[in-house]
Design goal:
Elements lengths: L1 E3 L9 H7 L3 E4 L6 H8 L9 H10 L7 E11 L4 E5 L7 H15 L5 E6 L2 E6 L29 H15 L2 H8 L7 E8 L12 E3 L2 H9 L4 E2 L5 H7 L5 E3 L7 H17 L4 E6 L3 E6 L22
Parallel strand pairs: 1-10, 1-11, 8-9, 8-10
Antiparallel strand pairs: 2-12, 3-4, 3-6, 3-7, 5-6, 11-12
Helix pairs in contact: 3-7
């Protein structure tokens, strides 16, 4: 099983769309963390809280017993009658900017000993003495959408909303954003607080080997005492280590058509040689494809409308 960047937007070339259309395609039409989608496909229970604590576990290799939430910088774009959330990817925020930003946020919350921030490399976490209600999905999952429907609401969300408003005031006045604006870069005008909870106790349960750099996936695998390897670009290398099957999560920072084409070429060759009987592809925009070695012989299958995305180079 492979978790891949979105299939929409023309990232898949026509030759691969024709081949993939011979498999079994399904579009969920719903937004959900890819970890949860993957767990359902492999028959594992979906965690109902503690996604940030799992991410921390996967990032550090250590389980924390403290309550925490992910604290991810985002840009909120003001439209005519709504907001649109934009996630930051890769190196869009410099390490120095992250360090200075969260140092300022920590100084601000230090006067109230209920909250504290911890930044670990490119990721940051909010810790609270008393749990608060948070969003349940990451900014990457809702990138480009109106964030309101994904935020916590009701009386229980009061502590979250109050803290978020105060953090946004600090960010609005921060020198980093003045520099980013003058350079034509998106400002960091909010923090997306999500995935609050406590990491589960380790539990040994059979689970296919993982190949991924994604700390959220790695954290879940560690919670099940599973084999969590880092991403391998070559499917043959992964098959040598896990010939009976595995779950692999491709990096999301490079979703170019050329990279997608190379990966799909490798999948097709591996199936054709018989090294795999079947393959499941889960795309981050909700499309899933199950395709087997013999499905390529289904010449009568036309291009699926789920993949019928025009490209300028077709």
């Amino acid at each position: 099983m492979f978790v891949l960047p979105p299939a929409s937007g023309g990232e898949i070339r026509r030759e691969h769309r024709n081949w993939l259309s011979k498999g079994r395609l399904q579009a969920t039409g719903s937004l959900e963390e890819m970890l949860l989608v993957t767990l359902r496909r492999i028959g594992h229970a979906v965690p109902d809280e503690g996604m940030a604590a799992l991410r921390f576990w996967g990032q550090t290799g250590e389980r924390s017993g403290a309550w925490m939430a992910a604290a991810d910088p985002v840009h909120l774009e003001a439209r005519l009658d709504h907001l649109r959330l934009h996630a930051f990817r890769g190196e869009e925020i410099a390490k120095r900017e992250l360090r200075d930003l969260f140092s300022s946020l920590q100084e601000f919350v230090a006067v109230d000993d209920r909250f504290s921030f911890a930044r670990l490399g490119p990721l940051a976490y909010l810790r609270s003495q008393d749990p608060i209600v948070t969003a349940t999905c990451s900014p990457l999952t809702i990138d480009g959408l109106e964030p309101g429907e994904f935020m916590p609401d009701g009386p229980a969300a009061a502590a979250h909303d109050r803290l978020l408003g105060e953090l946004q005031m600090v960010l609005h006045e921060h020198a980093i954003n003045a520099k980013r604006a003058s350079a034509g870069l998106r400002t960091i005008n909010s923090i997306w607080i999500w995935g609050g909870g406590i990491a589960p106790q380790p539990e040994e349960r059979p689970i296919a080997p993982l190949f991924s750099d994604d700390p959220l996936f790695r954290g879940y695998w560690k919670s099940k005492c599973g084999s969590a390897n880092f991403w391998m670009e070559d499917i043959e290398d992964a098959l040598q280590l896990a010939p009976e099957g595995f779950v692999a999560v491709a990096p999301d920072v490079d979703a170019s058509p050329a990279v997608m084409a190379d990966r799909l070429d490798g999948f097709r060759r591996t199936l054709k040689r018989g090294d795999l009987r079947s393959l499941t592809l889960l795309f981050r925009d909700g499309l899933s494809i199950d395709i087997g070695r013999r499905d390529g012989l289904r010449f009568w299958r036309r291009l699926s409308p789920l993949l019928d995305t025009p490209r300028h180079d077709d």
